[in-house]
């Protein structure tokens, strides 16, 4: 899983632009969080969030919500207190995804673990 995520990152770093870089950072942050690599997840989540800020209107609402989701998950993995607020921000942003199918995918993504200390909080559909 980690090797595939880094291969994807390498590909999109060469073949894509800033939006693809944001998506690749999201993938790396998510994989590191799932594997319990807190500091690496946090570094990638922060990079994803920074790119999200730079990409502005070039990103979709799904991209914006996903950047918040991976940042929240990384904070939870490290045990930082901002994790709950960031997860709530991601949930709100996910509610702004206009396409029903995309919003449902995001809700499922947000509902998958691990969320470490936040595991008892289930997202609303």
What does this structure look like?
The chain has 125 residues and is an all-alpha fold. The longest helix has 18 residues, at 38-55. It is built from six helices and no strands. It has one domain (2-114). 74% of the residues lie in helices and 0% in strands. The protein has helices at 2-15, 18-34, 38-55, 61-78, 83-95, 100-111. The mean pLDDT is 94.
Radius of gyration: 13 Å
Query: Roughly what fraction of the amino acids lie in strands?
Result: under 5%
Distance between the termini: 28 Å
Helix percent reads over 70%
The tally of beta strands, per DSSP, is: 0
Note the main sheet.
none
Class inferred from helices and paired strands? mainly alpha
So what's the overall shape?
globular
Order of helices and strands: HHHHHH
Count up the domains.
1
Tell me briefly what this model is.
The chain is mostly helical and 125 residues long. It has helices at residues 2-15, 18-34, 38-55, 61-78, 83-95, 100-111. The chain has one domain (2-114).
How would you summarize the topology of this molecule?
Elements: H1 2-15, H2 18-34, H3 38-55, H4 61-78, H5 83-95, H6 100-111
Tags for this entry?
6 helices, globular
């Amino acid at each position: 899983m980690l090797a595939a995520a880094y291969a994807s990152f390498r590909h999109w770093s060469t073949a894509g632009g800033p939006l693809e870089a944001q998506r690749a950072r999201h993938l790396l942050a998510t994989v590191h969080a799932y594997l319990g690599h807190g500091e690496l997840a946090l570094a990638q989540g922060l990079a994803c969030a920074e790119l999200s800020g730079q990409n502005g209107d070039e990103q979709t609402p799904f991209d914006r919500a996903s950047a918040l989701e991976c940042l929240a998950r990384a904070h939870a993995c490290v045990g930082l207190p901002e994790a709950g607020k960031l997860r709530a921000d991601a949930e709100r942003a996910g509610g702004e995804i206009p396409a029903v199918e995309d919003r449902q995918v995001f809700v499922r993504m947000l509902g998958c673990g691990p969320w470490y200390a936040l595991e008892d909080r289930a997202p609303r559909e």
